[in-house]
Amino acid sequence: MKRDFQYKICARAILFLLVLLVVGCTTYKSQLRDAKEYEDAHMYSKALSLYSELLVRKETKEALIGKKRVVEAMIRENYDVPIRMLCMQDKLCEAEQLYSELSTFVEKNKSLDVKEPFGLKDVIVQSKRNYCESLYKQAESDVLAFKYDEARVKLSVIRSFFRDFPNLDYLESLCELYPNYYLAAKSIEEGRLRDAYKALKKIESIDPSFKDSRQMLDSCLKVGRITVAYVSIDRSSVNDDVEKEMGAQVVQSLLENKDPFLVLLDRDYTSKLLEEQKLGMSGLYDEKTLIQAGKLIGAKYILLGEIIEYSADQKLNDYGLKKGFLGKTINDSKVKYRQWNKKFSIQMKYRISMVDSETGETLFNSIYPLNKINEIDWAEFNGDYKMVYPGNWNWELIKTGEDHVDISKYNELQKLFSQKPMGNELNQMRTSFLIELAGLVKRGVETKIIEVTP
């Protein structure tokens, strides 16, 4: 009885499995037919989706071949034909974008052994080349018609497709050379020499042998250059060394000028010739003398530099003996060291004038006041100062509860020991001071030179 029941159960299970198998086969074949119908109706996306689903469930020859057919049809209708049409319409960027999508699609389905349409890449390349050749001819016509901006736009398109397109560099350079050449010629005609110089330097950076640009540049500089002579006005109240150093710093700062229209005459030669024109022992030049001296040395303008006031001082302060220990503990030897302070100060007023040697007119007259204060602290110890720690004590030979070592200030004290003045700090400060002042003078002179240069 029990065995009969088991047989019935097994029979029912086998029957159920057979039913599932039959239904599964029927469903698979039904979906396969649906996929083929979608394919025949050119509904490729749905067909591809169904074929892919069927292959996941069960890889059959029919589903595999069907999927490959659909993929090839999609390549043909979605990519091959549209790309060729875009190439014919010169919509090359769109064609390249679609080709990129095609490559991705083919890679995604590489298991089906599908390939890009034969010769499609060559079609795109040749279409781009034909298009660029046409654009190049149009750009040439634009250049001949002085339409340089329009030519540049076309050339930039060609450059985006072919970096090494024949003669592209040449035509691009012409689009820069000709506009700058005409701008330079017009600027020279109108007396705007700085504008002409900029345009001609641009030409020089591209093609130094272009037309007569080199001769135009030389002529522009020859006409526009301004010769300047620096003259130091002596004052009996100011040390000669200070005056000479100040003059040297001003001249040096002006020599560093990058203005092509400014020419600074040799200072020694200038001073020698102007010295011969000096009136008596006053150390000053009047208008007539300046005009005469300027013409003599070939200077358009004369810079008169004069130190009106100058004072330099240093003061030494003794902060007295300080207490410490030759070690980190109060058990170490007690010592004393001396602490000092020195203050440095410089005050100066410097006047610079720019005079037109032809007319005697003063173009500008500026006074630069400058004050500087500096100080230095240091300590001295007769022995190995690296052993000294700051601290305090009341009795040198007796220990008390008030004795202590300040270890936290050791580095600070060591710094004081190591920065003892060398003796030339005031001179170094003066040099730094004069360099800063010369820089201010340079900027003032440069501004005025730009103003007077057309």
The percent of residues in helical segments reads 55-70%
* Number of E strands: 7
Order of helices and strands: HHHHHHHHHEHEHHEEEEEHH
Terminal Cα separation, in Å?
125 Å
- Discrete helix count: 14
Contiguous runs where pLDDT drops below 50 for at least 5 residues: 15-25, 279-283
Shape: flat
CATH topology of the largest domain: Rossmann fold
CATH class of the largest domain: Alpha Beta
Rg is 46 Å
CATH architecture of the largest domain, by name, is 3-Layer(aba) Sandwich
Biggest sheet character: 7 strands, mixed
Beta fraction: 15-25%
- Average of per-residue pLDDT values: 86
How is this structure best described in words?
With 454 residues, this protein is of the alpha/beta class. It has three domains: 2-118, no CATH class; 132-224, Serine Threonine Protein Phosphatase 5, Tetratricopeptide repeat, CATH 1.25.40; 227-436, Rossmann fold (3-Layer(aba) Sandwich). It has helices spanning 2-40, 44-57, 61-88, 92-108, 120-144, 148-161, 168-189, 193-206, 213-224, 240-255, 267-277, 287-297, 410-418, 425-452; strands at residues 226-233, 262-264, 301-325, 334-356, 362-380, 389-392, 404-405. Strands 1, 2, 3, 4, 5, 6 and 7 form a seven-stranded mixed β-sheet that branches. The chain is flat. The protein starts with a helix and ends with a helix.
